[in-house]
Amino acid sequence: MSSPNGKTLKQARLDRAHPPERVPYVTYWVRKILVWPRLTRIIIICVFALAVTALVFPLIDYVYMENFFNEQTIILPSFVSSGLGIITFGVGWWLLVGVRGEKRPERTAVFFYLVFGMLVLVVVFTLIINGYHVATLPDV
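Above: the chain's sequence. Below: its structure in token form.
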């Protein structure tokens, strides 16, 4: 005999004995993110790496021009900024993408990486909007 929901009495008893697993909210989001398509995760880490490079470039350039300027090392700020972007990309690849066919472990660091990336994007877009606003001010 089956119940109205389509389960036998034995299945219903087993379901009551083993309630669904409750996981922390961060783990829930990490699981949802890690099942996104591989290409989507690759695009996300590329955007975050570019945003980090765009965010640190003016700061590194300013510090270099004010304190360490030398004609022979004029390319150094670009290398440092690109290096930080590559490090961001590498960490994102390790956390989100991994090797093809591999199931990524559920790390809390994935959640913090995504929060960090979102904050960087917000700051970069804020700086872009602020720069546009300042550039379009009338001459005094």
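Residues 38-68 form the longest helix (31 residues).
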